[in-house]
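User: tokens in, sequence out, please.
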């Protein structure tokens, strides 16, 4: 859904400069809003992945197929990520993305191995 801001000049109340300033301000705020949105999405993606991994290893059907060492590795990484999130609510998009890559890099091979039946 695209929201458009329309600024009209009713009865000549606004000067050309005032209209241009309003348009510039609207563009500036749009860019700022998009940055905030990207940050929130990156943070939520990381948070969701961490909690999904936590739930995955706690699920008895799935967790039973993981070695204790692998389960511990994931649990430690997830806990560290959640703690990092708590301390870094205002991190930049790249920081959230880097943390996600780091966590996926550790978890995905373990989960893939488990689904291939070689968990031990």
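Assistant: Sequence out:
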């Amino acid at each position: 859904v695209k929201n458009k801001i329309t600024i009209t000049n009713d009865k000549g109340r606004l000067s050309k400069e005032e209209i241009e300033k309003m348009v510039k301000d609207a563009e500036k705020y749009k860019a700022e809003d998009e940055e905030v949105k990207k940050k929130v999405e990156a943070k939520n993606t990381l948070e969701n992945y961490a909690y999904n991994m936590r739930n995955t290893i706690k699920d008895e059907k799935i967790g039973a197929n993981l070695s204790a060492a692998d389960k511990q590795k994931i649990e430690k990484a997830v806990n560290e990520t959640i703690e990092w999130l708590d301390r870094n609510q205002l991190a930049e998009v790249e920081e959230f993305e880097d943390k996600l890559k780091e966590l996926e890099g550790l978890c995905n091979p373990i989960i893939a191995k488990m689904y291939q039946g070689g968990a031990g």
